[in-house]
TrEMBL record:
Amino acids binding ATP: G482, Q483, T484, G485, S486, G487, K488, T489
Gene: A02p016120.1_BraROA
Family: Belongs to the TRAFAC class myosin-kinesin ATPase superfamily. Kinesin family.
Span list, region Disordered: 13-36
Coiled-coil region: 110-148, 177-232, 262-390
Protein name: Kinesin-like protein
Length: 755
């Protein structure tokens, strides 16, 4: 950063700093010049370039006093320029604070918008409830009309039955009439016979006449009865016609009421749809405004990071170095061409020698500038490390990341949304997790929450800077905690044979070896040592030991004793533990495969390959910079804890039962230690188990510690998941010692030659 400040890929010209004058750019803060030697000095890009490209001329190259004075004057101007840049940096820090305040205001505005959206949503719910009530009343009215329709149908059926009865009576009368007609015919025949016998049987004739008159009266009565039946029939037909008219009128009323109610409902529905559409448009506008604010926030953060990050300075210095190297090459080419011209020209030998000396002096000056740029590059790297470690200390010494594994084949996929959810608010996005148990919601907040679809690479990116601290000379500890089958070993070790699913341990080692190689250009040389052990049934086992007898255990007791010791500097040593020097990540991968084969695993009802021990991977880093005579010593501990389990679920018996009891006991001791640290007790029970005693420097010392809490998403593991989240919350609340970098200056007799 020489003479300019980069902002969004554009060159920002320098501005004067004189007696608190205003900036030349609208988005810069006023410059404070109180107590500065450069308060009356104005620097522009041309001034800085001229200052950097200035060549000091001397009257006599053997006058060292004059050369020293000119050099002191040049250095003084460089210091003024550097102080001016420092004040400019303070101005940008002030601008960053203004941007943070603007961010807070935007967040408040977003909260107000969310509250208004909630109010509108409640109003919509009330309107929908009223519509539901209206619809229910319409349904009740329709049911009443249908009931009346059924009653009309019943009356019509009764009338049809009465008509059938009348028709049956009419049929009976017709039969009687036929019979009467038949009798009349027989009577006529008898009358004929009586007429024939009239003379002989007069008395009998008179009686027959009486009988005939009687039959005639009966016939008249039958005719009258038939007439009355026809009248009743016509009346019934008229009643049926009237009932049909009433039925059709009722049907018309029903159709009209249905059409009217449907039209009203459709109108209300259309109005509600329009209102919902308008509300959705307003909601989309609010979301767009929020996205716009988030985009502005990201851009502001990016600009702030650009202003605060010294990587731009390093990049510019590297660019300057490369340009100076190109200039050296160009000057060398010019020197060669000059030599050829000297051979071809007719100049005297004295003139040729003077020109050659001038070119040589220019090369020497350029080399000195390259050396100064390299020194600035080293100082920038030191400042980057200091700022990075300060950021980690501000975040807290014990950080907690939560990772939810995806559902496995055969598990109930429908319960995940009911059991585990993630808040969508801006404050808790990516940091909050909610767990439902017995219709009760439990909310937790951690430094980071990884969803089930998060890849191994995304997880490693979050911890890569913490791994970098081990190369800077800090103690770093990362351990995975959770119930059995929750994905701890997958997080730490990954899936063998799949490069995309490598765990944190292989990725950490790759980063360390790559960074080690890149720091060689800055004069750093590192030595790396690896050890791996497991704690099985409260017994320490060396996983890198080549002695098979030492690896065997009898009832959980190893024939070889591995005692844990902590020295005065907080370093941990395990007696008789195999420690190997490594030169590449391939060697470490081979050792990891060897340790995985020796590690204790077993099958339970909850996990096909359950880790039955605590796995501890330790990488000791020793670095030396011979140019700065600085030495650092860092330690990286990566721990895969055995999973907690309940005997009622795991179904462990025999050796598995003993292993489960030992695992739960050590994890319970870890919980006691965390509880004592949270309460800041004078006595912390580190010695209650081998695990807590081994982790004592990480939990109560000067180490940078990160905990992964792994969660299983199925509903049957809700109880264990809740216990794990509560334990992680206690860990996140612990305050331990401030991390301390292990560095010193190499003594002449203590210098090491590291390859």
């Amino acid at each position: 950063m020489v003479g300019t400040m980069a902002s969004n890929g554009r060159i920002r010209p320098a501005f004067p700093v004189a007696n608190g004058s205003k900036d030349l750019t609208p988005d810069s803060a006023p410059v404070s010049t109180a107590g500065s030697e450069c308060g009356q000095v104005e620097f522009t890009r041309e001034d800085v370039e001229a200052l950097l490209n200035e060549r000091i001329k001397y009257k006599s190259k053997f006058n060292y006093k004059e050369r020293c004075e000119n050099m002191m004057e040049y250095i003084k101007r460089l210091r003024l320029c550097i102080r001016w840049f420092q004040e400019l940096e303070l101005d940008y820090a002030f601008e960053q604070e203004k941007l943070k305040n603007a961010l807070v205001l935007n967040e408040k505005h977003c909260a107000v918008m969310e509250a208004s959206l909630k109010n509108k949503e409640e109003e919509l719910n009330m309107i929908i409830e009223e519509l539901r009530k209206n619809f229910e009343s319409a349904q009740i009215q329709l049911a009443k009309e249908q009931t009346e329709k059924l009653a009309a149908n019943d009356s019509l059926g009764k009338e049809k039955e009465a008509r059938l009865a009348v028709e049956k009576a009419q049929g009976g009368l017709t039969e009687e009439l036929g019979k009467a007609q038949g009798e009349l015919q027989t009577a006529n025949q008898r009358i004929q016979s009586v007429n024939d016998m009239y003379k002989l049987l007069q008395e009998y004739n008179s009686s027959l006449q009486l009988y005939n008159s009687k039959l005639q009266g009966d016939l008249d009565e039958a005719h009258e009865t038939i007439k009355r039946g026809e009248k009743e029939r016509t009346e019934i037909v008229e009643n049926i016609g009237n009932l049909k008219g009433q039925f059709s009128a009722l049907q018309d009323q029903l159709v009209a009421s249905k059409v009217a109610s449907q039209d009203d409902i459709m109108k209300q529905k259309a109005e509600l749809v329009n209102e919902i559409a308008s509300l959705k448009v307003e909601l989309q506008q609010a979301k767009d405004e929020r996205d716009h604010h988030l985009t502005e926030l990201k851009t502001l953060q990016t600009e702030a990071n650009k202003y605060n990050d010294f990587k731009d300075t390093i990049t510019e210095l590297e660019t300057t170095c490369s340009s100076q190297s190109n200039q050296i090459k160009e000057l060398q080419d010019r020197l060669v061409s000059c030599d050829r011209r000297l051979q071809m020209s007719d100049l005297t030998t004295f003139e040729k020698m003077n020109e050659f000396e001038d070119q040589k002096q220019t090369i020497i000056d350029l080399k000195s500038r390259v050396e100064e740029a390299e020194l600035k590059l080293v100082e920038g790297e030191k400042l980057r490390k200091k700022l990075h470690n300060t950021i980690l200390e501000l975040k807290g010494n014990i950080r907690v990341f939560c990772r939810v594994r995806p559902l496995l084949p055969g598990e109930n996929n429908g319960d995940e949304g009911k059991t585990i959810s993630y808040p969508a608010s801006l404050e808790l996005l990516g940091r909050g997790i909610d767990l439902m148990q017995n219709a009760q919601k439990h909310s937790f907040t951690f430094d980071k929450v990884f969803l089930p679809n998060t890849t191994q690479e995304d997880v490693f990116i979050e911890i890569s800077q913490l791994v970098q601290s081990a190369l800077d000379g800090y103690k770093v500890c990362i351990f995975a905690y959770g119930q059995t089958g929750s994905g701890k070993t997958y997080t730490m070790m990954g899936k063998p044979g799949n490069a995309e699913e490598k765990g944190l341990i292989p990725r950490c080692l790759e980063q360390i070896f790559e960074t080690r190689q890149s720091l060689r250009s800055q004069g750093w040389k590192y030595e790396l040592q690896v050890s791996m052990l497991e704690i099985y049934n409260e017994t320490i086992r060396d996983l890198l030991s080549t002695n098979k007898e030492a690896m065997r255990t009898d009832n959980g007791v190893s024939p070889q004793k591995h005692a844990i010791k902590h020295d005065a500097h907080g370093n941990t040593h395990v007696a008789e533990l195999t420690i190997l020097d490594v030169k590449s990540s391939r060697e470490v991968s081979f050792l990891l495969d060897h340790a995985a084969r020796n590690r204790s695993v077993g099958k339970t009802q909850m996990n096909e390959q359950s880790s039955r021990s605590h796995f501890v991977f330790t990488l000791r880093i020793s670095g030396v910079n011979e140019s700065t005579e600085q030495q650092v010593q860092g330690v990286l501990n990566l721990i895969d804890l055995a999973g907690s389990e309940r005997l009622s679920k795991s179904g462990s018996t025999g050796d598995r039962l003993k292993e489960t009891q030992a695992i739960n006991k050590s994890l319970s001791s870890l919980g006691d230690v965390i509880f004592a640290l949270a309460k800041k007790d004078d006595h912390v029970p580190f010695r209650n188990s081998k695990l807590t005693y081994l982790l004592q420097p990480c939990l109560g010392g000067d180490s940078k510690t990160l905990m992964f809490v792994n969660i299983a998403p199925e509903s049957s593991s809700t109880g264990e998941s809740l216990c794990s989240l509560r334990f992680a919350a206690r860990v996140n609340a612990c305050e331990i010692g401030t991390p301390r970098r292990q560095t010193n200056i190499i003594k002449p007799l203590d210098r090491l030659s590291l390859g």
